[in-house]
């Protein structure tokens, strides 16, 4: 499928993109190539392909142990705050 200049102008308008007259032929060609590639992918016979529920089905992911690696320094960080209460930062109300 080949896109026309009008098609690309409509797409650019919907995407709120500014495409100059010198860029237009490049966009028409590039987007047409992308659509042609998608059409080729759609032509592939996938009738006998079983869908996967998970790409790692039957495999186990190696996970690192869930251990704290840094010290809790929230009290030190809150010393710089103008107002703190119950370990929370107090900020001015901005919405009424």
What does this structure look like?
The protein is mostly helical. It has a domain at 5-42: Orthogonal Bundle (Histone, subunit A). It has helices at residues 5-14, 24-42, 74-78, and strands at residues 84-85, 88-89. Strand 1 (84-85) and strand 2 form a beta hairpin. The longest helix has 19 residues, at 24-42. The chain starts with a helix and ends in a 7-residue tail after the last strand.
Order of helices and strands: HHHEE
What is the CATH level 1 assignment of the domain at 5-42? Mainly Alpha
Distance between the termini: 54 Å
CATH architecture of the domain at 5-42: Orthogonal Bundle
Helix content: 25-40%
Number of strands: 2
> Outline, from the CA principal axes?
flat
β content, as a range? under 5%
Q: Could you give a short description of this structure?
A:
This protein has 96 residues and is mostly helical.
Offer a few descriptive terms.
single chain; 96 residues; mainly alpha; Histone, subunit A; flat
How would the blueprint of this fold be written?
Elements: H1 5-14, H2 24-42, H3 74-78, E1 84-85, E2 88-89
């Amino acid at each position: 499928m080949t896109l026309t200049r009008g098609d690309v102008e409509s797409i650019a308008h919907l995407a709120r993109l500014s495409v100059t007259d010198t860029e237009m032929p490049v966009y028409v060609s590039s987007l047409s190539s992308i659509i042609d590639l998608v059409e080729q992918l759609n032509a592939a016979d996938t009738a006998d392909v079983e869908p996967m529920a998970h790409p790692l089905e039957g495999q186990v992911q190696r996970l690192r142990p869930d251990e704290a690696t840094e010290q809790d320094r929230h009290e030190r960080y809150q010393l710089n705050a103008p107002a703190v209460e119950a370990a929370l930062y107090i900020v001015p109300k901005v919405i009424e």
